[in-house]
Amino acid sequence: MQSIEQIYRHNDWWDEINWSQIERDVRRLQGRIFRVSKEGDNKRVDNLMKLLVRSEKAKLFAIYIITQKNKGKATPGIDGKVYLTSRERMELSKKEFDYRTDRFQPILRKYIPKTQENWKARIYSSKKRRYDKAEMRPLGIMTIKDRVMTTIISFALTAKWEALFEPNVMGFRPGRCAQDAIQRIYLELIRGEKIILDADINKFFDNIKHTAILNRVNVFRKALYRCLNAGIIEKGKRIKTVKGVVQGSPISPILANIALNGMQEVLEKDIYVITYADDLIIIAPTVAAMKRMVPKLVKFLRERDLYLKREKTRITTKKEGFNFLGFRIEQPRMKLYVKPQKEKVKKFLNHVREIIWSNKQIEQRKLIAKLNPVIRGWAMYYRYSDANKAFNWVDHEINGIIWEWALRRHRNKGKWWIYDKYFDTTGMDKWIFKDARTGYTLYKAGKVQRLKYDFLVKDLSPFNPDPIVKEIWRKKRYQEVRHTMI
User: Fold this and answer.
1) Sign of the CA dihedral with 413 first, then 417, 423, and 429 last
2) Rounded mean pLDDT of 155-177?
3) Residue 317: phi, psi to the nearest 5?
4) What pLDDT score was predicted for residue 7?
5) Which residue in 139, 117, 40 sits closest to 344, CA to CA?
6) Average pLDDT over residues 123-148
7) CA separation (Å) from 162 to 254, 374, 463?
8) Going by DSSP bridges, is the β-strand pair 107-113/232-234 parallel, antiparallel, or unpaired?
9) By C-alpha distance, which of 311, 312, 304, 327 is closest to 204?
């Protein structure tokens, strides 16, 4: 085990750190917090959380995550500072990170489009229809130092609350993903006729009441108060933040889950709620039970200054179906289907069009290198669903887009010449986009092996130090890696 003295021994010590060991040390202390929190010893929990936040290894690991691993590492906050070299990261580690005295700087607000559609994708559509301006989503950018501080605090908060969260809270939790939420819904719906409330919380991150969070934390209440009330810089003006959690902050996911914790407790025992951030599905056995539940849900949200979005909230049945997390769940006849949502498939194809249209003159092998991670990532997300038709349709559409890309490059050549240059035939598959010189081949969504998701997460947590639970998570990770390699 690396000690702090061994880490700081050399002048260029940053690149010599064993980050896997540092992570294990942090996780080990998080496991202690989880176990004591499960036992209900609040005093010991508070002491262990303070110990973790003051830990030098937790600070180094947070700096590593924010400045080296995260995609936003090169995006500065209001101070304009980034730490992209080892020397800069070492200088950052020398600064004091004290949750008791740190003053958080205002957050820089920028807006990004909610959808992946752009003008190229819209013009490409053969249907000449009018498109509304894309809805923008506010994104808060903290300074790097504040991101590190909130990440350190989130280490402790996550370890404590993982022992307290309800099992059906799926969003932004370690070890849980969209497939866990979909599987929980599937297992409930196959048990017979159900009434379903498909709901969405209106502007959840913008409207959540601060006291709904601060009243549920003890140790870091003052630090979180300063963080939540740091203010926002928008178009050069400072705006006070009296409510809401800034999207983009490392600590916003855990704070959102803390605010919504307890929703299942206010409902009846035979009613189940599955939440994923601001999206939620409630399953009741009868219409009467659903009618009794709705006022309780509205009251629960109103106490947090939250309301349901009317246009995205409806009561439905399995036969009518509903969308959740990009999936379409419905039972038109005997079988309950979980398949990719049509709107999400079209949006994905628009994203692929954007990549191809933005690289009209690129070499074939480089285009394949850009498209393969996108296609593979999308297919992997849906591989646990009834996605055969969607995958085949996506492959067909992508081949059509690429064929037009190839035709445009060689306007004076025949179609058979273009086919021989860019495509290959293997067995029954006659449209394989393959670079003849390097052998690089475009990834096919239809070739992805469809799997049954049989992992039951229940109340399991990767922070649980119990050897049996740790072995369960080890097997799950091994299966994920093996399936990805296949």
Assistant:
1) positive
2) 93
3) -130, 175
4) 65
5) 117
6) 68
7) 10, 32, 8
8) parallel
9) 304
431 phi, psi to nearest 5 deg: -125, 70
Residue with tokens 């890309």: 405
Rounded Cα distance between 9 and 382, Å, is 48
- Residue 486 CA to residue 484 CA, distance in Å, equals 5
Distance CA 348, CA 32 (A): 42
195 neighbors 294 (Cβ within 8 angstroms): no
Residues contacting 62, CB < 8 A, separation 6+: 148, 149, 151, 152, 155
Residue 52 CA, chain-centre distance (Å), reads: 25
Query: How many whole angstroms separate alpha carbon 427 and alpha carbon 441?
Result: 15
d(C-alpha 355, C-alpha 398), whole Å: 11
CA dihedral 266, 267, 273, 278 (to 10 degrees): -40
pLDDT single digits (tens) 321-360: 999 999 999 999 889 999 999 999 999 999 999 999 888 8
How many other C-beta atoms can be found within 10 angstroms of the C-beta atom of residue 388? 12
CA distance 441 to 149: 44
d(CA 459, CA 75): 36
Report how far residue 139's alpha carbon sits from residue 271's, in angstroms, rounded to the nearest whole number. Answer: 35
φ, ψ dihedrals at 109, nearest 5°: -105, 130
DSSP state of 308: B
- Sequence length of the chain is 486
331 and 322 in contact (C-beta within 8 Å)? no
Q: Which amino acid, one-letter code, is at 25?
A: D
Total H helices, total E strands in the chain: 18, 13
The token pair at 364 is: 């074939």
Tokens 């509903």 identify what position?
A: 322
Helix (H, G, I), strand (E, B) or coil at 250: coil
Alpha-carbon distance of 192 to 389, in angstroms, equals 27
Q: Do 246 and 205 form a contact (C-beta atoms < 8 A)?
A: yes
Tell me the three state secondary structure of residue 276. strand
Tokens matching residue 3? 């000690």
pLDDT tier at 9, thresholds 50, 70, 90? low
Q: What is the pTM of this model?
A: 0.87
Instruction: Say whether 119 sits in a helix, a strand or coil.
Output: helix
Residue range 434-455, pLDDT digits in tens: 988 888 999 999 988 888 888 8
Query: How far apart are the C-alpha atoms of 469 and 466, rounded to whole Å?
Result: 5
Return all residues near 465 (Cβ < 8 A) that are at least 6 apart: 28, 31, 32, 34, 35
d(CA 255, CA 261): 10
Facing residues of 136 across strands?
113
